[in-house]
Specification:
single chain, alpha+beta, Peptide Deformylase, globular, binds nickel (II) ion
């Protein structure tokens, strides 16, 4: 078990698009294990690889926080979405900051699983929000970028003053 340190805003790796995973090897499997340990240690429901400093298209999720039931996705992308809903969101890379974010209500995501198979997963409720939040991470986008121009600007100012 290895708990990695979560990189905090405004680190550049969080604002850089990650690279696709070409092969799932022992290196990726080890990283995924450590990401899952880190997600639970931080009480998070999702974690993207660039949040632990690895700029690759991988994320893990645990909407119900039940160990052993984690979801792991490589090279995920949204293929369809429906509706809109605004709910409070936070991020392990932006501690103690929560704002309502408008997202699609339902999404259909295509990705590769741990076995290297292509899967299509439907996300609703919290899972839909996690999928969109984590895929944003992999594209170098943070939830504070989704608050609308003025709110985003204010958030960035406030957060850069913090540390
Ligand atoms: Ni996040």
């Amino acid at each position: 078990m290895a708990v990695l340190s979560v990189i905090k805003y405004p680190h550049k790796v969080l604002q850089t698009k990650t690279a696709p995973v070409v092969h799932i090897t022992d290196t990726e499997r080890k990283l995924v294990k450590d990401m899952i340990d880190t997600m639970y240690a931080e009480n998070g429901v999702g974690l993207a690889a660039n949040q632990v400093g690895v700029s690759q298209r991988i994320f893990v999720a645990s909407p119900d926080q039940v160990k052993g039931r984690e979801l792991v996705f490589f090279n995920p992308r949204i293929v369809k979405q429906e509706g809109a809903i605004k709910e409070f969101e936070g991020c392990l890379s932006i501690p103690e900051f929560y704002e309502p974010v408008r997202r699609a209500k339902k999404v259909w995501m295509r990705a590769t699983n741990m076995k290297g198979e292509t899967v299509e997963v439907k996300g609703e409720g919290l899972l839909s929000r996690i999928f969109q939040h984590e895929i944003d991470h992999l594209n170098g986008i943070l939830f504070i970028d989704r608050l609308g121009f003025l709110k985003s600007k204010t958030a960035r100012k406030k957060l850069s003053k913090k540390g």
